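Could you join me in thinking about how sequence relates to backbone shape in a protein? We need material for that, and I hope you will provide a protein of your own picking. Once you have written the record down, we can walk along the chain together:

…
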Amino acid sequence: MTYVSCYYHAFSGKQKAETAANRICKVLAVNQENEQLMEDYEKLASDLLEWIRRTIPWLENRVPENTMQAMQQKLEDFRDYRRLHKPPKVQEKCQLEINFNTLQTKLRLSNRPAFMPSEGKMVSDISNSWGRLEGAEKGYEEWLLNEIRRLERLDHLAEKFRQKAAIHEAWTDGKEEMLQHKDFETASLSEIKALLKKHEAFESDLAAHQDRVEQIAAIAQELNELEYYDSPSVNARCQRICDQWDSLGVLTQKRSEALQRTEKLLETIDQLYLEFAKRAAPFNNWMEGAMEDLQDTFIVHTIEEIQGLSTAHEQFKATLPEADKERQAILGIHNEIAKIVQTYHVNMAGQNPYTTINPQEINAKWDKVRQLVPQRDQALIEEHARQQNNERLRRQFANQANVIGPWIQTKMEEIGRISIEMHGTLEDQLTHLRQYEKSIVNYKPKIDQLEGDHQLIQEALIFDNKHTNYTMEHIRVGWEQLLTTIARTINEIENQILTRDAKGISQEQMNEFRASFNHFDRDHSGTLGAEEFKACLISLGFDIGNDAQGEAEFARIMSIVDPNRLGVVTFQAFIDFMSRETADTDTADQVMASFKVLAGDKNYILADELRRELPPDQAEYCIARMTPYSGPDSVPGALDYMSFSTALYGESDL
């Protein structure tokens, strides 16, 4: 027990020592951590306050720059400060406050006294410094913007001053030399007047530029008031402009007086020059217009047009004596000017200032006009003869065309009447039409003669003919239509005769068919429309109702009479249909029955039977086209007469 007790006390004492050591370590660790936080706070606060201390003087610097570029660089530096430098410091300030609050909390939880930073490094001190920083920052930004606006205004005014000064100096460049020039001493009156007008314009321009000079002075004054850094050079330039302006005013007045004195010396001569120019210009224009008209190539197409040109030419020739008087008067004015110049020894520089026309030019053009008049006379005579010949060709063509055109139209109408009227038999109509055809063919030489006249008209370049409404193209088309119509009508009558003879139709039936056809041919076109044909069938007794069955029946009939689906029925198709409906015609079944009789009631026929019963040519025709019979009762050489019969009537292929 004693040993056990000793062990117990020994181990119990050791545990207490370990507990005490752990407590001390924990306390020391907390204390060390707090001390580290305090040191971090002190350092961070010191750094932040030092940065604020350095930054505030920079922000409070209000020394302006002279150039917009320098101020813009300051603004850019300030933006870099806002964008790059300040945000990390804001974060540091926030972190400092967080660290301070964390430290105080830990000290309070560990029963330690509250942390008191060094003097001037309290959170409140930092906040106050930060507030001063932001105040300086706000004032600095406002100052920067105001200063930039001021510099913008100064730059604008300086640029405006330079522009206006440059414009003014460019305008005044050479003006003093111009005002001192003695060009008026050898000038003519027109030049003097021009110089006076030019000087008056210059005086007006000078007065107008007064406002610019005043503006330049006002801008220079404003630049001085705004303390522009380059004011000395602005003032010097402004003074030069004002001094030059005063000099221009004095020189302008002197030149004006000199020009007015010189003007009076030359007014008398100038009046004569002016009178010469006023009369010479229209006379010169008249001669140039006359030469142009006399040499102008004319294009006329009628006698009336050439007669109008001839009349106008005769009227022009009647004005030549008065024109010659005007020419003599104009030359007299020039001679008077020459006399005055010689008498008073006037220094005349150059020619007449009002015109470039001189007496030599007037005389040369007058001689040219006198030469062109007879040439124009000859040209008009030749053209008059040509137009007379053209008029003869027009009348010659028109006289024939006015006969041939109506003749063709009349023949077309007569042929149309023959084809639809029912006078006599078809043979009589055919005979009549052939007589018409012969008379038409005999008329061909007159068409050829008209073609010859038309060829002459084309060679003469005649494009219109007021004597006729017919052109050669109209005549050609009408002639071709006439030949086509007579040939087609004869063919129709011949086909009608063939149909009548083949179908055994009497003349009375043909007349009845024609009467019915003509009755429903309302527009006399020679054809029946679908509705006209339907009405005609109903009138002839065909049972074609408006129901589906009637429409189907009519469609079947139309497919027979109008296989090409043109929508019209010709008289020939009408006759074919009516003859098929009314006459006793052969059918495929009847032909097959006839072949069966020849074959002795067999379903096939032999070649020998065909040669025995039919004429040789017809027998060979059948043998060549009949196909071999292939029925069960077939024998060698058997021919299929059934398929041959159906093929004859289009019900199968041969």
Remarks:
- The chain has 20 helices and four strands.
- Residues 231-295 form the longest helix (65 residues).
